[in-house]
Amino acid sequence: MTFKNYLKISFANFDKTWKLIFYRIIVWAIVIGLIAPFYNVLKDIVVENWNASLMQDFVLAGLFYGNNIAVTFISVIDVLISALTTLFTQYLAVGIYISVILFLVRPFFMNIGRYVVNEMMYGYMSSHAKHGFASTWVRTMKKSALYAFFRTLFCLPFNVLTAGIFYLLLTVNGSEFALAMPFVFLIIATIILSVKQFLTMGWAPAMVVSGENVYNAFGIGIKAVARGSARSLLFCIATYFAVILLALGLGVVSLIILVPIFNVVSSMFEIMNFFSCQGMRYYVDKDTVLSSKKLEEQDTITKAKFLL
Description:
This protein has 308 residues and is mostly helical. It has helices at residues 3-12, 15-35, 39-49, 52-60, 69-90, 92-127, 133-139, 141-170, 175-200, 203-210, 214-227, 229-250, 255-278, 295-298, and strands at residues 281-285, 288-291.
Protein backbone atom coordinates (compact mmCIF):
# COMPACT_ATOMS: atom_id res chain seq x y z
CA MET A 1 0.00 0.00 0.00
CA THR A 2 1.41 3.35 -0.99
CA PHE A 3 1.59 6.39 1.27
CA LYS A 4 -0.89 8.10 -1.06
CA ASN A 5 -3.47 5.37 -0.39
CA TYR A 6 -2.84 5.56 3.34
CA LEU A 7 -3.72 9.25 3.20
CA LYS A 8 -6.82 8.66 1.05
CA ILE A 9 -8.18 6.03 3.42
CA SER A 10 -7.33 8.12 6.47
CA PHE A 11 -9.13 11.20 5.15
CA ALA A 12 -12.09 9.09 4.05
CA ASN A 13 -12.38 7.89 7.65
CA PHE A 14 -11.62 11.20 9.33
CA ASP A 15 -14.88 11.00 11.27
CA LYS A 16 -13.34 8.20 13.32
CA THR A 17 -10.79 10.69 14.62
CA TRP A 18 -13.40 12.78 16.39
CA LYS A 19 -15.26 9.72 17.62
CA LEU A 20 -12.15 8.25 19.22
CA ILE A 21 -11.16 11.59 20.75
CA PHE A 22 -14.67 12.05 22.15
CA TYR A 23 -14.52 8.49 23.51
CA ARG A 24 -11.21 9.24 25.23
CA ILE A 25 -12.72 12.36 26.79
CA ILE A 26 -15.57 10.23 28.15
CA VAL A 27 -13.06 7.75 29.59
CA TRP A 28 -11.16 10.56 31.30
CA ALA A 29 -14.42 11.92 32.69
CA ILE A 30 -15.17 8.46 34.14
CA VAL A 31 -11.66 8.25 35.59
CA ILE A 32 -12.00 11.66 37.24
CA GLY A 33 -15.42 10.66 38.53
CA LEU A 34 -13.99 7.49 40.09
CA ILE A 35 -11.22 9.48 41.78
CA ALA A 36 -13.46 12.41 42.80
CA PRO A 37 -14.60 10.90 46.15
CA PHE A 38 -11.02 11.35 47.37
CA TYR A 39 -10.70 14.95 46.20
CA ASN A 40 -10.12 16.34 49.71
CA VAL A 41 -7.37 13.82 50.42
CA LEU A 42 -5.58 14.64 47.17
CA LYS A 43 -6.05 18.37 47.66
CA ASP A 44 -4.46 18.27 51.10
CA ILE A 45 -1.48 16.30 49.80
CA VAL A 46 -0.99 18.59 46.82
CA VAL A 47 -1.26 21.76 48.90
CA GLU A 48 1.23 20.36 51.39
CA ASN A 49 3.86 19.52 48.76
CA TRP A 50 3.25 21.79 45.76
CA ASN A 51 3.87 25.49 45.16
CA ALA A 52 2.83 27.98 42.50
CA SER A 53 6.31 28.80 41.21
CA LEU A 54 7.17 25.13 40.65
CA MET A 55 3.87 24.65 38.85
CA GLN A 56 4.71 27.54 36.54
CA ASP A 57 8.21 26.19 35.86
CA PHE A 58 6.75 22.75 35.17
CA VAL A 59 4.23 24.07 32.63
CA LEU A 60 6.82 26.24 30.88
CA ALA A 61 9.60 23.63 30.83
CA GLY A 62 10.46 22.79 27.24
CA LEU A 63 13.43 22.64 24.89
CA PHE A 64 11.86 25.17 22.56
CA TYR A 65 11.51 27.65 25.41
CA GLY A 66 15.16 27.44 26.41
CA ASN A 67 14.33 26.20 29.93
CA ASN A 68 16.45 23.47 31.51
CA ILE A 69 14.17 20.43 31.51
CA ALA A 70 16.43 18.31 33.69
CA VAL A 71 16.60 20.86 36.52
CA THR A 72 12.86 21.54 36.44
CA PHE A 73 11.80 17.91 36.27
CA ILE A 74 14.09 16.73 39.05
CA SER A 75 12.41 19.30 41.30
CA VAL A 76 9.01 18.04 40.17
CA ILE A 77 10.05 14.41 40.74
CA ASP A 78 11.21 15.24 44.27
CA VAL A 79 7.84 16.83 45.02
CA LEU A 80 6.00 13.92 43.40
CA ILE A 81 7.92 11.37 45.46
CA SER A 82 7.16 13.35 48.62
CA ALA A 83 3.46 13.47 47.73
CA LEU A 84 3.32 9.76 46.89
CA THR A 85 5.10 8.90 50.12
CA THR A 86 2.48 10.84 52.05
CA LEU A 87 -0.32 9.21 50.07
CA PHE A 88 0.85 5.61 50.52
CA THR A 89 1.91 5.96 54.16
CA GLN A 90 -1.15 7.80 55.42
CA TYR A 91 -3.80 6.66 52.90
CA LEU A 92 -2.57 3.29 51.59
CA ALA A 93 -5.96 2.05 50.39
CA VAL A 94 -6.61 5.32 48.56
CA GLY A 95 -3.18 5.16 46.92
CA ILE A 96 -3.73 1.61 45.69
CA TYR A 97 -7.21 2.47 44.44
CA ILE A 98 -6.03 5.53 42.47
CA SER A 99 -3.08 3.58 41.01
CA VAL A 100 -5.42 0.84 39.77
CA ILE A 101 -7.75 3.42 38.21
CA LEU A 102 -4.97 5.36 36.47
CA PHE A 103 -2.67 2.55 35.36
CA LEU A 104 -5.05 -0.36 34.78
CA VAL A 105 -8.65 0.80 34.37
CA ARG A 106 -7.86 3.87 32.25
CA PRO A 107 -5.60 2.11 29.70
CA PHE A 108 -8.04 -0.82 29.63
CA PHE A 109 -10.84 1.40 28.32
CA MET A 110 -8.46 3.31 26.05
CA ASN A 111 -7.39 0.02 24.43
CA ILE A 112 -11.03 -0.92 23.88
CA GLY A 113 -11.29 2.26 21.81
CA ARG A 114 -8.24 1.19 19.81
CA TYR A 115 -9.85 -2.17 19.03
CA VAL A 116 -13.11 -0.50 18.00
CA VAL A 117 -11.28 1.74 15.50
CA ASN A 118 -9.59 -1.34 14.01
CA GLU A 119 -12.99 -3.00 13.64
CA MET A 120 -14.49 0.08 11.98
CA MET A 121 -11.54 0.45 9.63
CA TYR A 122 -11.79 -3.22 8.68
CA GLY A 123 -15.43 -2.71 7.70
CA TYR A 124 -14.47 0.19 5.44
CA MET A 125 -11.44 -1.46 3.83
CA SER A 126 -12.99 -4.88 3.28
CA SER A 127 -16.47 -3.88 2.09
CA HIS A 128 -16.61 -0.07 2.12
CA ALA A 129 -19.04 -0.28 5.04
CA LYS A 130 -19.48 2.47 7.62
CA HIS A 131 -20.08 1.31 11.18
CA GLY A 132 -20.97 3.49 14.13
CA PHE A 133 -18.55 3.76 17.04
CA ALA A 134 -21.12 3.05 19.76
CA SER A 135 -22.69 0.08 17.98
CA THR A 136 -19.25 -1.40 17.22
CA TRP A 137 -18.20 -0.86 20.84
CA VAL A 138 -21.20 -2.85 22.07
CA ARG A 139 -20.99 -5.54 19.37
CA THR A 140 -17.31 -6.30 19.95
CA MET A 141 -17.28 -5.90 23.73
CA LYS A 142 -16.30 -9.50 24.52
CA LYS A 143 -13.29 -9.58 22.18
CA SER A 144 -12.25 -5.98 22.71
CA ALA A 145 -12.30 -6.40 26.50
CA LEU A 146 -9.97 -9.41 26.31
CA TYR A 147 -7.66 -7.57 23.93
CA ALA A 148 -7.67 -4.45 26.11
CA PHE A 149 -6.94 -6.42 29.27
CA PHE A 150 -3.96 -8.33 27.90
CA ARG A 151 -2.57 -5.38 25.92
CA THR A 152 -2.69 -3.26 29.08
CA LEU A 153 -0.68 -5.87 30.99
CA PHE A 154 1.73 -6.39 28.10
CA CYS A 155 2.46 -2.66 27.66
CA LEU A 156 2.77 -1.87 31.38
CA PRO A 157 6.41 -3.06 31.76
CA PHE A 158 7.49 -0.99 28.73
CA ASN A 159 5.84 2.13 30.16
CA VAL A 160 7.28 1.54 33.64
CA LEU A 161 10.76 0.96 32.15
CA THR A 162 10.53 4.21 30.18
CA ALA A 163 9.46 6.16 33.28
CA GLY A 164 12.21 4.53 35.34
CA ILE A 165 14.89 5.42 32.81
CA PHE A 166 13.61 9.00 32.72
CA TYR A 167 13.97 9.20 36.50
CA LEU A 168 17.47 7.67 36.46
CA LEU A 169 18.63 10.10 33.79
CA LEU A 170 17.35 12.99 35.87
CA THR A 171 19.43 11.86 38.85
CA VAL A 172 22.72 11.90 36.91
CA ASN A 173 24.85 14.79 38.16
CA GLY A 174 26.63 17.26 35.92
CA SER A 175 25.55 20.42 34.14
CA GLU A 176 26.83 19.12 30.80
CA PHE A 177 24.67 15.99 31.02
CA ALA A 178 21.68 18.08 32.09
CA LEU A 179 21.76 19.69 28.64
CA ALA A 180 22.14 16.36 26.86
CA MET A 181 19.67 14.44 29.03
CA PRO A 182 16.51 15.23 27.00
CA PHE A 183 18.12 13.96 23.82
CA VAL A 184 19.45 10.81 25.50
CA PHE A 185 15.97 10.13 26.84
CA LEU A 186 14.48 10.86 23.41
CA ILE A 187 16.60 8.13 21.82
CA ILE A 188 16.13 5.54 24.58
CA ALA A 189 12.38 6.12 24.96
CA THR A 190 11.87 5.99 21.20
CA ILE A 191 13.60 2.59 21.02
CA ILE A 192 11.71 1.07 23.97
CA LEU A 193 8.27 2.34 22.95
CA SER A 194 8.84 1.52 19.27
CA VAL A 195 9.56 -2.10 20.21
CA LYS A 196 6.34 -2.14 22.23
CA GLN A 197 4.39 -0.68 19.31
CA PHE A 198 5.95 -3.06 16.80
CA LEU A 199 5.05 -6.11 18.89
CA THR A 200 1.43 -5.03 19.41
CA MET A 201 0.47 -3.25 16.18
CA GLY A 202 -0.75 -6.45 14.49
CA TRP A 203 -2.57 -7.78 17.55
CA ALA A 204 -5.97 -6.10 17.20
CA PRO A 205 -6.06 -6.39 13.37
CA ALA A 206 -5.34 -10.13 13.61
CA MET A 207 -8.27 -10.58 16.00
CA VAL A 208 -10.55 -8.51 13.78
CA VAL A 209 -9.56 -10.01 10.42
CA SER A 210 -8.87 -13.65 11.30
CA GLY A 211 -11.37 -13.98 14.14
CA GLU A 212 -8.71 -15.69 16.27
CA ASN A 213 -8.66 -15.52 20.05
CA VAL A 214 -6.46 -13.02 21.85
CA TYR A 215 -3.59 -15.49 22.34
CA ASN A 216 -3.29 -16.79 18.78
CA ALA A 217 -3.87 -13.33 17.34
CA PHE A 218 -0.77 -12.00 19.09
CA GLY A 219 1.47 -14.45 17.23
CA ILE A 220 -0.37 -13.94 13.94
CA GLY A 221 -0.02 -10.19 14.31
CA ILE A 222 3.73 -10.35 14.88
CA LYS A 223 4.22 -12.63 11.87
CA ALA A 224 2.14 -10.32 9.68
CA VAL A 225 3.92 -7.15 10.79
CA ALA A 226 7.30 -8.84 10.35
CA ARG A 227 6.55 -9.27 6.63
CA GLY A 228 6.56 -5.50 6.34
CA SER A 229 9.08 -4.95 9.11
CA ALA A 230 10.84 -2.00 7.47
CA ARG A 231 7.62 -0.04 6.97
CA SER A 232 6.27 -1.02 10.38
CA LEU A 233 9.46 -0.06 12.24
CA LEU A 234 9.73 3.19 10.32
CA PHE A 235 6.21 4.14 11.39
CA CYS A 236 6.85 3.20 15.04
CA ILE A 237 10.15 5.05 15.26
CA ALA A 238 8.99 8.12 13.35
CA THR A 239 5.76 8.60 15.32
CA TYR A 240 7.27 8.04 18.77
CA PHE A 241 10.30 10.19 17.95
CA ALA A 242 8.03 13.02 16.80
CA VAL A 243 5.65 12.77 19.78
CA ILE A 244 8.43 12.61 22.40
CA LEU A 245 10.41 15.41 20.73
CA LEU A 246 7.35 17.67 20.60
CA ALA A 247 6.48 16.82 24.21
CA LEU A 248 10.00 17.68 25.34
CA GLY A 249 10.04 20.79 23.18
CA LEU A 250 6.58 22.17 23.92
CA GLY A 251 6.23 20.93 27.47
CA VAL A 252 4.13 18.33 29.27
CA VAL A 253 0.89 20.24 28.64
CA SER A 254 1.24 19.47 24.92
CA LEU A 255 0.58 15.80 25.71
CA ILE A 256 -3.10 16.72 26.07
CA ILE A 257 -3.13 17.13 22.29
CA LEU A 258 -0.26 14.89 21.21
CA VAL A 259 -1.41 11.67 22.91
CA PRO A 260 -4.93 11.59 21.36
CA ILE A 261 -3.52 12.42 17.92
CA PHE A 262 -0.91 9.66 18.23
CA ASN A 263 -3.53 7.11 19.31
CA VAL A 264 -5.83 8.01 16.42
CA VAL A 265 -3.03 7.80 13.85
CA SER A 266 -1.57 4.56 15.23
CA SER A 267 -4.99 2.89 15.58
CA MET A 268 -5.91 3.62 11.96
CA PHE A 269 -2.47 2.66 10.68
CA GLU A 270 -2.57 -0.74 12.39
CA ILE A 271 -5.32 -2.22 10.24
CA MET A 272 -4.07 -0.56 7.04
CA ASN A 273 -0.58 -1.94 7.64
CA PHE A 274 -2.03 -5.40 8.38
CA PHE A 275 -3.89 -5.40 5.06
CA SER A 276 -0.68 -4.45 3.28
CA CYS A 277 1.46 -7.03 5.08
CA GLN A 278 -1.07 -9.80 4.39
CA GLY A 279 -1.48 -8.93 0.71
CA MET A 280 -5.21 -8.30 1.09
CA ARG A 281 -7.53 -6.42 -1.27
CA TYR A 282 -8.96 -3.18 0.11
CA TYR A 283 -11.26 -0.30 -0.75
CA VAL A 284 -9.70 3.13 -1.19
CA ASP A 285 -13.09 4.62 -2.05
CA LYS A 286 -16.42 3.26 -3.26
CA ASP A 287 -15.17 3.00 -6.84
CA THR A 288 -11.61 1.81 -6.23
CA VAL A 289 -10.48 -1.59 -4.96
CA LEU A 290 -6.75 -2.26 -4.88
CA SER A 291 -4.56 -5.21 -3.95
CA SER A 292 -1.40 -5.19 -1.87
CA LYS A 293 1.55 -7.38 -2.81
CA LYS A 294 0.80 -11.05 -2.34
CA LEU A 295 2.49 -12.81 0.57
CA GLU A 296 4.91 -14.70 -1.65
CA GLU A 297 5.95 -11.41 -3.27
CA GLN A 298 6.86 -9.96 0.13
CA ASP A 299 9.00 -12.88 1.33
CA THR A 300 12.70 -12.81 0.59
CA ILE A 301 14.60 -15.76 -0.86
CA THR A 302 15.89 -16.60 2.64
CA LYS A 303 12.32 -17.12 3.80
CA ALA A 304 11.30 -19.24 0.84
CA LYS A 305 11.89 -22.53 2.69
CA PHE A 306 9.07 -21.60 5.09
CA LEU A 307 6.51 -21.21 2.30
CA LEU A 308 4.21 -24.17 1.66
